[in-house]
Amino acid sequence: MFRQGNKLSTSISRLSTLASRAAGVRAKSTLPSLPYDFGALEPVVNSEIMTLHHGKHHATYVNNLNAALEKMSDAMAKQDYATMIALQGAIQFNGGGHLNHSIFWQNLCPVKDVVAPSEANPELAKAIEGQWGSLDNFKTEFNTKTAAIQGSGWGWLGYNKQSKKLEIATCANQDPLVMKGLVPLLGIDVWEHAYYLQYKNARPEYLKQIWQVVNWKDVAARYEAAKKA
Amino acid sequence: MLSLLAAGGAEAFSAFAPSLSAPKSLRLRQESVTMSSNDNPMSRRAAVVVTAGLLGSFLAPKESKAEGAFSLPALPYDYKSLEPYIDEETMKLHHDKHFNAYLTNLNKALEGKPAAKLTDIQKEAIKAGPAIRNNGGGYYNHALFFKEMGPAANSGKPSAALQKAIDASFGSMDKMKEEFNAAAAKRFGSGWAWLGVTPEGKLAITSTPNQDNPLMEGCEGQKMIPVLGLDVWEHAYYLKYQNRRPEYITNWWSVVNWEAVSNNYEKFAAKGIPVEVV
């Protein structure tokens, strides 16, 4: 049942886009399809989590973002600055949630499709080694910092365009990494909804396992794009 | 410390350990010791030191951080007692893992620090830094939370005094729940919703992020003494409700124990005192 769901949700989102275009309202943001089936990341992240995470949590961010953007465009038309300012929280939460999860689905891939950073992009592998000594050291520091996030948030590998260096950063709630001045390359969601059904309170265990489904090809592509931008 | 004690008499002792509530019989003994010693300052000091030592070794007040620091309060009911509103597995994890982790980390953060009342720790928590803010808050919040709930059959209703205060601030119980539910649903990310008594003596509702609570100086939202709190961290509801937080919130009211909440209100918050939870 879960495996078929992804195709259904894609169809529904396509239909709603068409419907809203027909109504003369431009749909602002849409739920991107998962690049794989809900069960594809088993046994690292189970299909129940993927179904809820994509179909409910991410979908809700998209819906709430669109609602906030509609109110924002009304307020902009009326030059109602008070309302525009009041809406910023909703846009940060839901826009951030949409951005972050859109990156996340691409950052992950089935175990069988995973390649090492050195195979994905030797430049990236070299940069990681240069920064942290080894890939393992990088993962250890990433996991330590990410596990330590209080409450909800994300751990990130980001690119600093000023220093041209890789950095590990964490963000609270759905704050997008751009708020820290970095280009997002790899994000790991540590909101409890990302792991609780399978790992319960054992966030460090989830962080240990998640590396088995990190799509270094995608991380490398973002790295290349960030360097050029 | 000795110079404090040398200041003389009962005042010195209470300066040394203001939070220790010595049983009446011991207190009388202390006074008689100081009175019966002759008026030589040296022997008065000695008397105070001896008494303080005796009292210190006797008392292990649960509120203060004594030698063994804080401990995990047992659940006042069975793990499955809040079914079907809160599931057994969540209660086991929430109490034995999450609550326990805050306790362990709080004790670690307090190592080597002078003894303090848990409610005083709350007041200074934001200034004290992330370890005490998150774990001191987490420990207090969960202690309040588990104590204020109980089996649905025993939910009962607010005391007359609490009901009066609810009606005065919100108009009715239903209106209070509506406002509370909205605050709980709107809290983005992890946090808590609270019903409490403001410095003006009125009931109000607020919410805080992560493990903050309204006792903490500098916290977000309305300053108040909480009498009822709802955990809206995902771990509090995800196994049973998944993303459906509003459904969790609505169902949770069935396991609120109004006797406990009324007690929190009448014995503490209405008197301007933070609720003692351990």
UniProtKB/TrEMBL annotation, chain A:
Cofactor(s) this protein requires: Mn(2+)
Domain Manganese/iron superoxide dismutase C-terminal per the UniProt entry, residue ranges: 122-222
Residues binding Mn(2+), per UniProt: 53, 101, 189, 193
Domain Manganese/iron superoxide dismutase N-terminal: 30-108
Reactions listed under catalytic activity: 2 superoxide + 2 H(+) = H2O2 + O2
UniProt keyword terms in alphabetical order: Manganese, Metal-binding, Oxidoreductase
Pfam families: Sod_Fe_C, Sod_Fe_N
Assigned EC number: 1.15.1.1
Manganese among keywords: yes
Gene Ontology molecular function: manganese ion binding; superoxide dismutase activity
Entry annotated with the keyword Manganese: yes
A cellular component term, taken from the record's GO annotations: mitochondrion
Alphabetical list of Gene3D superfamilies matching this protein: Fe,Mn superoxide dismutase (SOD) domain, Iron/manganese superoxide dismutase, C-terminal domain
Family per record: Belongs to the iron/manganese superoxide dismutase family.
Purpose of the protein: Destroys radicals which are normally produced within the cells and which are toxic to biological systems.
Name of the molecule in the record: Superoxide dismutase
Organism of origin: Guillardia theta (strain CCMP2712)
Lineage summary: Eukaryota, Cryptophyceae, Pyrenomonadales, Geminigeraceae, Guillardia
TrEMBL record, chain B:
GO molecular function: metal ion binding; superoxide dismutase activity
Domain Manganese/iron superoxide dismutase C-terminal: 158-263
Domain Manganese/iron superoxide dismutase N-terminal positions: 70-149
PROSITE patterns xref list: SOD_MN
E.C. number(s) listed in UniProt: 1.15.1.1
Listed GO CC annotations: cytoplasm
Keyword match Kinase: no
Pfam annotation, one family: Sod_Fe_C
Keywords, sorted A to Z: Metal-binding, Oxidoreductase
The keyword Metal-binding belongs to this UniProt entry's keyword annotation: yes
Similarity remark: Belongs to the iron/manganese superoxide dismutase family.
Alphabetical list of PANTHER family matching this protein: 37S RIBOSOMAL PROTEIN S26, MITOCHONDRIAL (PTHR43595), SMALL RIBOSOMAL SUBUNIT PROTEIN MS42 (PTHR43595:SF2)
Name of protein: superoxide dismutase
Taxonomic placement: Eukaryota, Cryptophyceae, Pyrenomonadales, Geminigeraceae, Guillardia
